[in-house]
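User: I want to check something. If I give you two sequences, will you return the structure for each one separately, not as a complex?

Assistant: Yes, each is folded on its own. Here is the first sequence with its structure:
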Amino acid sequence: MRYKIIACFALCFLLLIFIFGCGEDFPIFTETLEITNLTVTQSSIGVGETTTIEAVVNYSGDETVLLYTWTADAGSIQGFDGRATYIAPGDQGIYVISLRVSDGVISDERTVEINVGKQSVESMTLDFDTHWPAEAPKDSLAYSVNIKNVVSEKVLIHYDITQDQDEFDAFLSIQVDQTVVLEETAIGAEQPSTAKRTVDEVDVSHIITGPGRYMVTFYIRPGDRVLNGWLLNEAKIIGVQGTSDPQQ
């Protein structure tokens, strides 16, 4: 029995020597996190205009645990993960956009500057402060637009939508003269959608090419059909002169 006990102690001692002696062969891994780049669609914009910022993040762990925090020292910014939309303030100046990414243990931060000057391009308003009924399987807001002049090479439809009474995400799509310019996109506060408030732009230069009448239609397919579920804060066409006639 005594020999068995001695042999057991000897085996444990050898095992400890093996573990500690081979420490270099079994390193303790730590995650690495770095924001390698922030790309701005337009680094110089006019007051009240928008631009999109996208981040490139290198992370060695599970990216689903990362928390993205976007901030701006003026104006407003709405971001989901590595993509954000910046809305310039009413005053001209150079403003700093910051992104902080963290996994709860390690983090990294990076900034980019946006130059806000005078409003660079004319625009016409389609609508503002209008609720979608959001009670039908697919509700729409339609506008008959009379374009008198195209004043920019790039024509954009700008939209600003807030999730109001609806508690579930919806799907937004946009058509110009029966041509889909925005495929169904999930909007709302639930992940992986945009946010409770969605501000973005879609390029329609290939369709609105000159003076004439165009039909612009916003479709929403609600997840929860409730009265006044979604609010169109503002919709406008940037780069044109003209008038809009709501059809609903």
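And separately, the second sequence with its own structure:
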Amino acid sequence: MLDGLLVALALTAMVAGLTGAFSPCGFSMVDTIGSTLGNTRKSITRLACFTFTIGAMLGGVLTFGGLAFVGQLAGETSTGLGWALAASIALTAAIADWRGWRIAPQIRRQVPESWRWRLSLPLVAGLYGVLLGLGFTTFVLSFAVWALAGISVAVGSPVLGIAIGLAFGFGRALPVIWLAPELNNGRGSERLEGMAAEPRLWLGLRRLDALGLLLCALLMGTAVANASTLPAATDPSVSEGALAWQSLDGQGRLQLPSGEQRTLPGTDPAVGESVIAWQSASQITVADLATMTPKLVLPAVNVDAIAVSPTWVAYRGQGIHGEDNLIAVSLTNPAERRYVDGSPRPGEIGRPALDRETVVFAVDTPKRNIIEGMNLATGVRHVLRYSSSTGLLNPALLHGRLLYEQINHCAQELRLGSMGSVRHDQVLLRLASTVSRDPGYEPGYEANWNSASPCSNRPTGAGNDIRLGPSALSSTAAYVTEIGSGASRIVKVER
């Protein structure tokens, strides 16, 4: 869905940039680069077209990518509020552009004319391109420009913002690339005059923008539906379209790919491709997901977390002295058991997650925070993430992609990356941390300096009353528990 939305937003942005060619600045750019006011040598004109294009695309990225980054820092779209707001903006602007309403607010400013008399043509073309690519430094010729800015902030995705900016800048440059090199031989002049004499072209482009915005609104409306939540629920587990979770009423529940929901005969459920597991009466039951026929029953006491795959089941349980133990049992040979890890203190070993033979789990101690993976077939272990100062919690694994939470004094982040490297991790969700932050000085005294550590995503004061909990990963979405005061819910976040 996000790939389709990216294409739709980029095409709409390109048309919005193209619509800007009908502004005074749009016509003057063609005249400046292509006429004798600049330089009539074709090589210089082509170079100026190139620098104008690069400048316009850079300006677009600065505006729309920057707005998207601000939106990412300022808000969260996990509940679908951001998507709903973006869809409303797109729909409103689509109606306005389709009906040809007067643009408001309007920016009645043109680019500095003196630049073209004092600077070389390629340089001034590049600078003019940046100004026009910024979108809001000169006349705005469609509501789509305002809508794309609002969407960038509301969705808060820098990837979408950069795509919008690049496409918008390229759209602003297209008329210059098409008309300027031919201006001196007459063909360009005829085309330019035809554009100026036919306002219906401008209105037609606005209607094309309206259609693009309408498509974007439909796609973002789908995102609202996908950003669903499960109230009074925790500990998600997902596989092959099936979702299992622990309800706060004490029952394990399962939602099948068809949408049918079932109450399970136990708690702490987990799904793994074709199998499902739960615990009840001091035992763990592993059953076929399609028929719910038991395949294996294991005696186990004090179990509080389970993970399962078609080949292994892993569980965390407390020993007689309150210590945590993480144990795995082979489903093909139940006599084969592996002691994965242990901790003298409860809560130091996190909830396990399984992807075939690989189990991942977090170990959180006062001295270190790690996410570790172990191949249960070979016993080989790997540290996947390590920190001595940042919390690393609640991993999930699917086809080599690692989902986990990174917690510090500023933010709680749900991250997705590869098992082997942290370099290209993607932040799927960011919340303010639960840590209270003071202003760095005592009220009533002069604040000559501030000793508080800076946080770009939150002010000083009380921390967030919501913290992130157990997570799960599917091929299209991530699921994470949001735990508040006396309640919790599972939130679905698109990948």
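Because they were folded independently, the notes below concern the second chain alone. The mean pLDDT is 86. The radius of gyration is 29 Å.
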